[in-house]
Amino acid sequence: MLQFEHVALLAGRIALVTGAARGIGFATAKLFAQHGASVVLVDRHAERLNSAYQNLRDMVPSERLMAQLCDVSEENSVRDAFQAIFGKFKRLDVLVANAGVLDNALIGMVSSSQIKCIFETNTFGVIYCAQYASRLMARNRSGSIINISSILGTNGGAGQTVYSASKSAVIGITKSLAKELSSNNIRVNAIAPGFIKTDMTMSMNSEKFNERMVSIKMGRIGHADEVANVALFLASDLSSYVTGQTIGVDGGMLI
Amino acid sequence: MRNHQMLVEIFSESLGIEQEKVTDDLKYNSIPEWDSVGHMVLVAGLESKFNIMLDTNDIVDMSSVGIAKEILAKYGVSFEAESDAAV
Protein backbone atom coordinates (compact mmCIF):
# COMPACT_ATOMS: atom_id res chain seq x y z
CA MET A 1 0.00 0.00 0.00
CA LEU A 2 1.30 3.42 -0.90
CA GLN A 3 2.18 5.64 2.02
CA PHE A 4 2.00 9.31 1.18
CA GLU A 5 -0.04 10.73 4.04
CA HIS A 6 2.83 13.06 4.90
CA VAL A 7 2.22 15.00 1.68
CA ALA A 8 -0.85 17.22 1.90
CA LEU A 9 -1.88 17.30 -1.74
CA LEU A 10 -5.04 19.31 -1.13
CA ALA A 11 -3.98 21.74 1.61
CA GLY A 12 -6.23 24.80 1.63
CA ARG A 13 -8.63 23.41 -0.98
CA ILE A 14 -12.40 23.22 -0.59
CA ALA A 15 -13.80 19.91 -1.86
CA LEU A 16 -17.40 18.78 -2.21
CA VAL A 17 -18.28 15.10 -2.48
CA THR A 18 -21.81 13.94 -3.33
CA GLY A 19 -23.01 10.56 -2.10
CA ALA A 20 -20.45 11.03 0.64
CA ALA A 21 -22.10 9.05 3.42
CA ARG A 22 -20.67 5.68 2.43
CA GLY A 23 -18.72 3.66 -0.13
CA ILE A 24 -16.59 5.44 -2.71
CA GLY A 25 -17.92 8.84 -1.65
CA PHE A 26 -16.98 8.43 1.99
CA ALA A 27 -13.56 6.96 1.16
CA THR A 28 -12.89 9.92 -1.11
CA ALA A 29 -14.04 12.50 1.43
CA LYS A 30 -11.88 10.91 4.11
CA LEU A 31 -8.78 10.78 1.89
CA PHE A 32 -9.27 14.39 0.81
CA ALA A 33 -9.57 15.45 4.45
CA GLN A 34 -6.37 13.54 5.26
CA HIS A 35 -4.68 15.54 2.52
CA GLY A 36 -5.61 18.87 4.05
CA ALA A 37 -8.80 19.74 2.20
CA SER A 38 -11.86 21.25 3.79
CA VAL A 39 -14.59 18.80 2.89
CA VAL A 40 -18.31 19.22 2.27
CA LEU A 41 -20.16 15.94 2.64
CA VAL A 42 -23.34 15.86 0.56
CA ASP A 43 -25.90 13.10 0.83
CA ARG A 44 -29.67 12.66 0.78
CA HIS A 45 -29.81 10.28 3.77
CA ALA A 46 -29.77 12.34 6.96
CA GLU A 47 -28.79 9.54 9.33
CA ARG A 48 -26.01 8.20 7.14
CA LEU A 49 -24.77 11.71 6.50
CA ASN A 50 -24.63 12.50 10.19
CA SER A 51 -22.81 9.25 10.87
CA ALA A 52 -20.22 10.00 8.16
CA TYR A 53 -19.78 13.51 9.54
CA GLN A 54 -19.18 12.17 13.05
CA ASN A 55 -16.67 9.65 11.70
CA LEU A 56 -14.62 12.37 10.03
CA ARG A 57 -15.13 14.83 12.88
CA ASP A 58 -12.61 12.82 14.93
CA MET A 59 -9.84 13.65 12.48
CA VAL A 60 -10.95 16.98 10.98
CA PRO A 61 -11.66 20.24 12.85
CA SER A 62 -15.22 21.52 12.44
CA GLU A 63 -14.11 24.58 10.46
CA ARG A 64 -12.83 22.22 7.76
CA LEU A 65 -15.91 20.03 7.65
CA MET A 66 -19.51 20.53 6.56
CA ALA A 67 -22.43 18.14 6.13
CA GLN A 68 -25.10 19.19 3.69
CA LEU A 69 -28.33 17.28 3.20
CA CYS A 70 -29.13 17.32 -0.51
CA ASP A 71 -30.84 15.19 -3.11
CA VAL A 72 -28.86 15.78 -6.32
CA SER A 73 -31.82 14.71 -8.42
CA GLU A 74 -33.70 17.83 -7.27
CA GLU A 75 -32.43 21.02 -8.84
CA ASN A 76 -33.71 23.20 -6.00
CA SER A 77 -32.01 20.98 -3.46
CA VAL A 78 -28.71 21.34 -5.34
CA ARG A 79 -29.16 25.10 -5.53
CA ASP A 80 -29.81 25.35 -1.80
CA ALA A 81 -26.80 23.16 -1.05
CA PHE A 82 -24.42 25.24 -3.14
CA GLN A 83 -25.76 28.46 -1.67
CA ALA A 84 -25.10 27.06 1.80
CA ILE A 85 -21.60 26.00 0.78
CA PHE A 86 -20.97 29.43 -0.72
CA GLY A 87 -22.16 30.96 2.56
CA LYS A 88 -19.61 28.99 4.59
CA PHE A 89 -16.57 28.74 2.33
CA LYS A 90 -17.11 31.38 -0.42
CA ARG A 91 -15.30 29.17 -2.93
CA LEU A 92 -15.01 25.66 -4.31
CA ASP A 93 -11.93 23.95 -5.71
CA VAL A 94 -12.98 20.33 -6.20
CA LEU A 95 -16.28 18.60 -6.98
CA VAL A 96 -16.61 14.83 -6.87
CA ALA A 97 -20.00 13.97 -8.40
CA ASN A 98 -20.36 10.50 -6.99
CA ALA A 99 -24.00 10.15 -5.93
CA GLY A 100 -25.68 7.40 -7.88
CA VAL A 101 -28.35 4.73 -7.82
CA LEU A 102 -28.18 1.22 -9.26
CA ASP A 103 -31.33 -0.56 -10.38
CA ASN A 104 -30.92 -3.53 -12.70
CA ALA A 105 -33.71 -4.72 -14.97
CA LEU A 106 -34.02 -6.43 -18.33
CA ILE A 107 -35.04 -4.01 -21.06
CA GLY A 108 -38.53 -5.48 -21.32
CA MET A 109 -39.02 -5.20 -17.57
CA VAL A 110 -37.89 -1.67 -16.84
CA SER A 111 -40.58 0.85 -15.94
CA SER A 112 -40.59 4.47 -17.01
CA SER A 113 -40.43 5.51 -13.35
CA GLN A 114 -37.23 3.44 -12.91
CA ILE A 115 -35.70 5.06 -16.00
CA LYS A 116 -36.63 8.50 -14.71
CA CYS A 117 -35.28 7.83 -11.23
CA ILE A 118 -31.93 6.51 -12.46
CA PHE A 119 -31.35 9.36 -14.90
CA GLU A 120 -32.46 12.03 -12.43
CA THR A 121 -29.80 10.99 -9.94
CA ASN A 122 -26.99 9.57 -12.07
CA THR A 123 -27.11 12.02 -14.95
CA PHE A 124 -29.20 15.11 -14.18
CA GLY A 125 -27.63 15.29 -10.73
CA VAL A 126 -24.16 15.45 -12.27
CA ILE A 127 -25.27 18.29 -14.55
CA TYR A 128 -26.95 20.29 -11.76
CA CYS A 129 -23.86 20.03 -9.55
CA ALA A 130 -21.54 20.95 -12.43
CA GLN A 131 -23.63 24.05 -13.19
CA TYR A 132 -23.16 25.50 -9.74
CA ALA A 133 -19.65 24.16 -9.11
CA SER A 134 -18.26 25.52 -12.36
CA ARG A 135 -19.54 29.01 -11.55
CA LEU A 136 -17.92 28.98 -8.13
CA MET A 137 -14.69 27.66 -9.63
CA ALA A 138 -14.74 30.18 -12.46
CA ARG A 139 -14.44 33.02 -9.96
CA ASN A 140 -10.95 31.80 -9.10
CA ARG A 141 -10.24 30.51 -12.61
CA SER A 142 -9.28 27.17 -11.15
CA GLY A 143 -10.91 23.87 -10.25
CA SER A 144 -11.25 20.16 -10.77
CA ILE A 145 -14.51 18.32 -11.42
CA ILE A 146 -14.44 14.55 -11.06
CA ASN A 147 -17.49 12.62 -12.23
CA ILE A 148 -17.94 9.04 -11.16
CA SER A 149 -19.05 6.95 -14.13
CA SER A 150 -18.78 3.15 -14.27
CA ILE A 151 -17.28 0.35 -16.32
CA LEU A 152 -20.89 -0.21 -17.35
CA GLY A 153 -20.86 3.28 -18.80
CA THR A 154 -17.84 2.47 -20.98
CA ASN A 155 -18.70 -1.15 -21.83
CA GLY A 156 -22.40 -1.72 -21.09
CA GLY A 157 -23.86 -4.75 -19.34
CA ALA A 158 -26.75 -7.15 -19.95
CA GLY A 159 -29.72 -6.29 -17.77
CA GLN A 160 -28.21 -2.91 -17.02
CA THR A 161 -29.19 -0.86 -20.05
CA VAL A 162 -30.61 2.11 -18.21
CA TYR A 163 -27.86 2.29 -15.58
CA SER A 164 -25.24 1.91 -18.33
CA ALA A 165 -26.87 4.66 -20.38
CA SER A 166 -26.98 7.00 -17.39
CA LYS A 167 -23.27 6.39 -16.75
CA SER A 168 -22.33 6.69 -20.45
CA ALA A 169 -24.00 10.07 -20.36
CA VAL A 170 -21.67 11.03 -17.53
CA ILE A 171 -18.72 10.43 -19.86
CA GLY A 172 -20.32 12.65 -22.51
CA ILE A 173 -20.89 15.33 -19.89
CA THR A 174 -17.26 15.03 -18.82
CA LYS A 175 -15.83 15.39 -22.32
CA SER A 176 -18.06 18.35 -23.16
CA LEU A 177 -17.48 20.19 -19.89
CA ALA A 178 -13.73 19.66 -20.23
CA LYS A 179 -13.84 21.53 -23.51
CA GLU A 180 -16.22 24.24 -22.30
CA LEU A 181 -14.48 24.98 -19.01
CA SER A 182 -10.82 24.65 -20.00
CA SER A 183 -10.55 28.37 -20.71
CA ASN A 184 -11.31 28.96 -17.03
CA ASN A 185 -8.61 26.46 -16.02
CA ILE A 186 -11.25 24.05 -14.73
CA ARG A 187 -10.36 20.43 -15.44
CA VAL A 188 -13.09 17.82 -15.81
CA ASN A 189 -12.43 14.09 -15.69
CA ALA A 190 -14.32 10.90 -14.99
CA ILE A 191 -13.53 7.70 -13.14
CA ALA A 192 -15.03 4.43 -14.31
CA PRO A 193 -14.86 2.01 -11.38
CA GLY A 194 -15.18 -1.70 -12.04
CA PHE A 195 -16.38 -4.14 -9.39
CA ILE A 196 -15.85 -2.31 -6.11
CA LYS A 197 -16.75 -3.60 -2.65
CA THR A 198 -19.59 -1.35 -1.53
CA ASP A 199 -23.02 -1.86 0.02
CA MET A 200 -24.41 -1.65 -3.51
CA THR A 201 -22.30 -4.53 -4.90
CA MET A 202 -22.52 -6.60 -1.71
CA SER A 203 -26.28 -6.79 -2.15
CA MET A 204 -25.88 -8.87 -5.36
CA ASN A 205 -26.83 -12.55 -5.33
CA SER A 206 -23.91 -15.01 -5.11
CA GLU A 207 -24.25 -16.29 -8.67
CA LYS A 208 -24.01 -12.81 -10.13
CA PHE A 209 -21.22 -11.92 -7.71
CA ASN A 210 -19.12 -14.94 -8.77
CA GLU A 211 -19.77 -14.23 -12.42
CA ARG A 212 -18.35 -10.75 -11.93
CA MET A 213 -15.31 -12.02 -10.02
CA VAL A 214 -14.33 -14.38 -12.86
CA SER A 215 -14.24 -11.44 -15.26
CA ILE A 216 -11.60 -9.54 -13.25
CA LYS A 217 -8.03 -10.16 -14.49
CA MET A 218 -6.50 -9.20 -11.16
CA GLY A 219 -8.68 -11.83 -9.51
CA ARG A 220 -10.08 -9.73 -6.70
CA ILE A 221 -12.73 -7.17 -5.99
CA GLY A 222 -11.65 -3.52 -5.81
CA HIS A 223 -11.87 -1.32 -2.74
CA ALA A 224 -13.35 2.13 -2.36
CA ASP A 225 -9.94 3.43 -1.22
CA GLU A 226 -8.47 2.46 -4.58
CA VAL A 227 -11.02 4.62 -6.38
CA ALA A 228 -10.44 7.44 -3.89
CA ASN A 229 -6.70 7.37 -4.69
CA VAL A 230 -7.45 8.13 -8.34
CA ALA A 231 -9.90 10.86 -7.31
CA LEU A 232 -7.09 12.37 -5.21
CA PHE A 233 -4.78 12.35 -8.22
CA LEU A 234 -7.41 14.08 -10.35
CA ALA A 235 -8.24 16.61 -7.63
CA SER A 236 -4.62 17.55 -7.01
CA ASP A 237 -2.02 19.39 -9.05
CA LEU A 238 -0.46 16.03 -9.91
CA SER A 239 -2.98 15.94 -12.76
CA SER A 240 -2.61 19.60 -13.75
CA TYR A 241 -2.53 18.78 -17.50
CA VAL A 242 -5.20 16.09 -17.48
CA THR A 243 -8.73 16.92 -18.62
CA GLY A 244 -11.55 15.23 -20.53
CA GLN A 245 -10.33 11.75 -19.56
CA THR A 246 -12.12 8.71 -18.19
CA ILE A 247 -9.85 6.58 -16.02
CA GLY A 248 -10.83 2.98 -15.40
CA VAL A 249 -10.26 1.59 -11.90
CA ASP A 250 -11.23 -2.00 -12.55
CA GLY A 251 -8.35 -4.44 -12.05
CA GLY A 252 -8.49 -5.36 -15.73
CA MET A 253 -12.15 -6.31 -15.62
CA LEU A 254 -13.68 -7.46 -18.91
CA ILE A 255 -17.42 -7.27 -19.51
CA MET B 1 -19.74 53.03 -4.87
CA ARG B 2 -23.47 52.88 -5.54
CA ASN B 3 -24.89 49.62 -6.80
CA HIS B 4 -26.09 51.15 -10.06
CA GLN B 5 -22.62 52.38 -10.95
CA MET B 6 -21.13 49.07 -9.87
CA LEU B 7 -23.58 47.26 -12.16
CA VAL B 8 -22.67 49.48 -15.08
CA GLU B 9 -18.97 48.84 -14.54
CA ILE B 10 -19.50 45.07 -14.29
CA PHE B 11 -21.45 45.02 -17.55
CA SER B 12 -18.88 47.24 -19.23
CA GLU B 13 -15.86 45.23 -18.08
CA SER B 14 -17.45 41.80 -18.56
CA LEU B 15 -18.75 42.46 -22.05
CA GLY B 16 -15.99 44.83 -23.14
CA ILE B 17 -18.37 47.65 -24.04
CA GLU B 18 -18.47 51.36 -23.20
CA GLN B 19 -20.32 52.31 -20.01
CA GLU B 20 -22.63 54.57 -21.99
CA LYS B 21 -24.07 51.51 -23.74
CA VAL B 22 -25.19 49.98 -20.44
CA THR B 23 -28.80 51.13 -20.15
CA ASP B 24 -31.83 49.31 -18.74
CA ASP B 25 -33.09 48.38 -22.19
CA LEU B 26 -29.83 46.80 -23.39
CA LYS B 27 -30.82 43.22 -24.23
CA TYR B 28 -29.05 39.88 -24.32
CA ASN B 29 -27.91 38.98 -27.86
CA SER B 30 -28.72 42.51 -29.10
CA ILE B 31 -25.00 43.22 -29.45
CA PRO B 32 -22.22 40.78 -30.47
CA GLU B 33 -20.45 41.19 -27.13
CA TRP B 34 -23.43 39.97 -25.08
CA ASP B 35 -23.59 36.41 -26.37
CA SER B 36 -23.71 33.23 -24.26
CA VAL B 37 -19.98 33.33 -23.53
CA GLY B 38 -20.18 36.98 -22.53
CA HIS B 39 -23.22 36.18 -20.43
CA MET B 40 -21.33 33.68 -18.29
CA VAL B 41 -18.46 36.14 -17.82
CA LEU B 42 -21.06 38.73 -16.81
CA VAL B 43 -22.67 36.34 -14.32
CA ALA B 44 -19.28 35.57 -12.78
CA GLY B 45 -18.69 39.31 -12.43
CA LEU B 46 -22.09 39.98 -10.85
CA GLU B 47 -21.76 37.09 -8.41
CA SER B 48 -18.25 38.02 -7.44
CA LYS B 49 -18.76 41.79 -7.02
CA PHE B 50 -22.11 41.55 -5.25
CA ASN B 51 -21.01 38.47 -3.28
CA ILE B 52 -24.06 36.40 -4.18
CA MET B 53 -24.82 33.08 -5.85
CA LEU B 54 -27.52 33.19 -8.50
CA ASP B 55 -30.08 30.50 -9.22
CA THR B 56 -29.55 28.88 -12.64
CA ASN B 57 -33.07 29.92 -13.73
CA ASP B 58 -32.29 33.54 -12.89
CA ILE B 59 -29.17 33.38 -15.06
CA VAL B 60 -31.23 32.09 -17.96
CA ASP B 61 -33.91 34.75 -17.37
CA MET B 62 -31.43 37.64 -17.21
CA SER B 63 -32.27 38.97 -20.66
CA SER B 64 -31.66 42.70 -20.21
CA VAL B 65 -29.94 45.15 -17.89
CA GLY B 66 -33.33 46.15 -16.45
CA ILE B 67 -34.25 42.54 -15.73
CA ALA B 68 -30.80 41.96 -14.25
CA LYS B 69 -31.60 44.69 -11.71
CA GLU B 70 -34.92 43.06 -10.84
CA ILE B 71 -33.24 39.69 -10.38
CA LEU B 72 -30.41 41.13 -8.29
CA ALA B 73 -32.98 42.83 -6.07
CA LYS B 74 -34.21 39.35 -5.07
CA TYR B 75 -30.73 38.72 -3.68
CA GLY B 76 -30.74 41.89 -1.61
CA VAL B 77 -28.94 44.15 -4.09
CA SER B 78 -30.96 47.35 -4.20
CA PHE B 79 -30.73 49.97 -6.90
CA GLU B 80 -31.28 53.64 -6.39
CA ALA B 81 -33.22 55.51 -9.05
CA GLU B 82 -30.93 56.46 -11.95
CA SER B 83 -31.69 60.17 -11.38
CA ASP B 84 -30.41 59.81 -7.82
CA ALA B 85 -27.32 58.04 -9.07
CA ALA B 86 -26.51 61.02 -11.27
CA VAL B 87 -26.67 63.47 -8.37
What does this structure look like?
By secondary structure, chain A is α/β, with parallel strands linked by helices. In chain A, about 45% of the residues lie in helices and about 15% in strands. Chain A has helices spanning about 25-35, 45-55, 75-90, 110-140, 150-155, 160-180, 200, 205-215, 225-235; strands at about 15-20, 40-45, 65-70, 95, 145-150, 185-195, 195, 220-225, 245-250. In chain A, the strands form 2 sheets. Chain A has a 7-stranded parallel beta sheet, sandwiched between helices. A two-stranded parallel sheet of chain A has the order 7-8. In chain A, α1 (about 25-35) packs across α9 (about 225-235), α3 (about 75-90) packs parallel to α4 (about 110-140) and α4 runs parallel beside α6. Chain A starts with 13 loop residues before the first strand and ends in a 6-residue tail after the last strand. Chain B has a single domain, classed as ACP-like (Non-ribosomal Peptide Synthetase Peptidyl Carrier Protein, Chain A), CATH 1.10.1200.10. In chain B, about 55% of the residues lie in helices and about 0% in strands. Chain B is globular. At the A-B interface, α3 and α4 of A face α2 of B.
Concise structural overview:
By secondary structure, chain A is an alpha/beta fold. In chain A, 46% of the residues lie in helices and 16% in strands. Chain A has a single domain (14-248), classed as NAD(P)-binding Rossmann-like Domain (Rossmann fold), CATH 3.40.50.
